[in-house]
Amino acid sequence: MDALMSRLDTFVTNPDFAPVLSLVKGVRNGVVYGSKVRFPHALVMIFLFRSGTFREKVKLVLKATRQHARNLATFAFIYKSSMIVLRNLNMAQAGKEGRYDSFIAGLLGGYVVFGRNRGSVSKQIVIYVFARVMLSLAQLAIEPRANPLSSVIPQETRTNISNNAYPAFAALSWAFVMYLFRWYPDTLISSLRSSMVYIYSDSDHWDSFRNFLIHNK
């Protein structure tokens, strides 16, 4: 057994195999992370807010977990393999990563994995990423030397924008989601809509103490 482990250690630490092995580990980490993140979330949301038998709910939890894990694993494979190809296609510096390689690889992976899959799990991942991107871009917009206009923003103004950007983002996000829930609920993804129905709509209705505090309905 020790001899086998020694050979495996030698194999996986060989720099000649590093690009291919990075694909394998990327897929592995995508599966593990996707499962760890989605399983407890799906378990809580489905058992609390979905109707159906215990068996049906378990199937939904496993399906959501499998989809999340598969999406992240597939994206990792496409992204990392694209980065390898782009590095080898670099005419200026062969084998070196180009400035926009990550953008191109992310564009390809995003389209193949998430752009063509309109399921609720994929939408949740994209929406999460989109929100983070917007916050990062807002921060970059006022960073010195990040763009031609940022250098003309006074430091005091930059500080005020930085301090108030997130509160404004949070307030507007909730303002829009509550407006959409009130007047256009069908436009929201089902998991968000069901949780909001439970908190904001069901709390307007009861006909006894039992379904006022003990049970929702």
TrEMBL record:
It comes from the Eukaryota. InterPro entries: Pmp4 (IPR019531). GO terms for cellular component: peroxisomal membrane. It holds the Pfam family Tim17. This is Peroxisomal membrane protein.
